[in-house]
């Protein structure tokens, strides 16, 4: 029963976040006559703020985060342990950080950086915990079941992604560069902006790992 509920929550989370990205990009395109450049534009530059046109679209983002958190809570209740409990606590914090991040502009630089650091640290912690859990479950069944092995691969990719951004020396480099006309312009790739988008997209993927683990664990 747990795995079917996790599948349903995963479907809701994925559908919501995909719909959110599609909707805000469409709204942004109508306003700016161009699509969002996820490589160098920050979410706060594209996401509709509260009480503005299209602000109801933000409910899709919150629905995705809520469905993902519900999946963690469900997994913890059914397979209670230290690691699942820690993962739920960490994702609760992570959900707060990434849910608030699109609505805090760089005009509030301190608050924005606090949110980013909180998101990066919690993203790393939860990906490390879920990778360890996947490894433990796979080892428990002597690597005879395929689903926890797939879970290891997916969670390890998420862990590598978080490590890449943590170790990126240019993550907080927001300086403009000069173009061929000697004008100051925004770089074509801003690691911090790309991270803020990527963490929104990747957050529901944790549910996929939990779903795979739930198919392997025999209570």
Ordered list of secondary-structure elements with their pairings:
Blueprint: H1 2-32, H2 58-78, H3 82-100, H4 109-140, H5 146-166, E1 177-178, E2 184-185, H6 191-202, H7 205-216
Helix pairs in contact: 1-2, 1-7, 2-3, 2-7, 3-4, 4-5, 4-7, 5-7
Plain-language structure description:
The protein is mainly α and 219 residues long. It has helices at residues 2-32, 58-78, 82-100, 109-140, 146-166, 191-202, 205-216; strands spanning 177-178, 184-185. Strands 1-2 form a two-stranded antiparallel sheet. The longest helix has 32 residues, at 109-140. It is globular and about 60 Å long. The mean pLDDT is 91.
Low-confidence stretches: none
Q: Whole-number average pLDDT? A: 91
Can you tell me the overall shape? globular
Q: Would you list the SSEs in sequence order as H and E?
A: HHHHHEEHH
Portion in beta strands: under 5%
What is the share of helical residues? 55-70%
What is the tally of beta strands? 2
Put simply, the count of helices is 7
Structural class: mainly alpha
Strand order of the largest sheet: 1-2
What is the CA-atom radius of gyration, in angstroms?
Answer: 19 Å
What composes the largest sheet? 2 strands, antiparallel
Beginning-to-end CA distance, first to last residue:
12 Å
